[in-house]
Amino acid sequence: MDIAQRWMSLPHEWQPLFERWAEDPKNRLALHSWPQYGGQKVVGLTWGRSDAPVRLMAAVPHAHEPAGTAVMVNLASQLIAGRHLDGEPTELPIEEIREKCLITLLPDTNSQGRAKRSERCWDGAHDDDTFLKIVFGIAADGSRFGRYPEWSLKEHRPRQIGIEYEQLTDDLFVEPNTSRRSTHFKAITELHARYGHTHFLDMHQHEQPPAAILPADFDELSPEDQAKIMAWAKAIIQALSAVGADPRPEPVISYRGQERQRFFQDFWRGTCPGMLRLVSEVRNNLDRKTGVPTTMEQQFTMANAVLLGTIKHLMETAT
Ligand SMILES: [Zn+2]
Question: How far is the centre of ligand 1, averaged over its atoms, from the C-alpha of 62 (Å)?
């Protein structure tokens, strides 16, 4: 693969492609778009039959985690044009996928944050502290700015605002996946109301081994839904191992018992009924323990295993 060609993660690289594909009626796509403060927009598309048994929505909420974006855009290219973005023909069984799946791709639900930087990928050029200050911002005292679902310039005066946040007004900032005021939340709930998605894959990156993360409200779900999510999580772990990654061997619940678990529970409570959710993490930038950088190709390969492993598993288990 030619990774430099296959990887598109900045809004100006891929949003025009989605718009061009959607203009051609033979592609049978629905294009989705939401404006963001400051002029950027969040763009997505839906491909496939609305009566398909598997209706998957995948999204990337964090600006500094572009691997999910890159694999979604490359998947769209395969589904629509039959080719990877570097021109190689796809290996995917497109007709079989169309028979069984509706796929909604939201490659980047905070393009405003992503567009603040020109890096296409975080591959270790910045050390951990510098990287995390780009992500969360720099506080008035020079330390790394905090992580809040919502904050205002009335309460905080950071020296630098982190790209993870979405600015909603002159002074209000939110984290896309913990604030219901985010464009991320708006996009997911509007699309679920329209398509009744059966599954939601929330794609992330962190500076640790890849992982399948169970939803924060996993303990409250029915045993039947728990079993389905667990099987999906294990399929992702297997797909990661199959490409030579080193995933955590078992699915986990992150932030258990911490305030952040409650933020996620509050975010999802009562929304998108019937939609099973899973979070994936693949490595980003430098591994925090070993200091080893993660290359663009490694990031792509891991995120791609998660996305394609999900589609394969859901097709096999579709009823
Ligand atoms: Zn994340």
Answer: 5
Measured in Å, residue 65 CA sits from the centre of ligand 1 at 6
Q: What digits encode the pLDDT tens for the residues 122-135?
A: 999 999 999 999 99
Q: How far is the CA of 51 from the centre of ligand 1 (A)?
A: 31
Q: pLDDT, tens digit, for every residue of 5-50?
A: 999 999 999 999 999 999 999 999 999 999 999 999 999 999 999 9
Distance 274 CA to ligand 1 centre (A): 24
Report how far ligand 1's centroid is from the alpha carbon of 270 (Å): 22
Kindly list the averaged pLDDT for each block of 10 residues, start to end, along the chain of length 319.
Answer: 97 98 96 98 97 98 98 98 98 97 98 98 96 98 97 97 98 98 98 98 97 96 98 98 97 90 96 97 95 97 98 93
End-to-end CA distance of the chain: 35
Please tell me the distance between residue 281's alpha carbon and the centre of ligand 1 in angstroms: 8
Delineate the domains of the chain, giving CATH numbers in brackets.
Answer: 3-116+177-317 (3.40.630.10)
Expressed in angstroms and rounded, the spacing between residue 150 Cα and the centre of ligand 1 is: 16
pTM of the predicted structure, to 2 decimals: 0.97
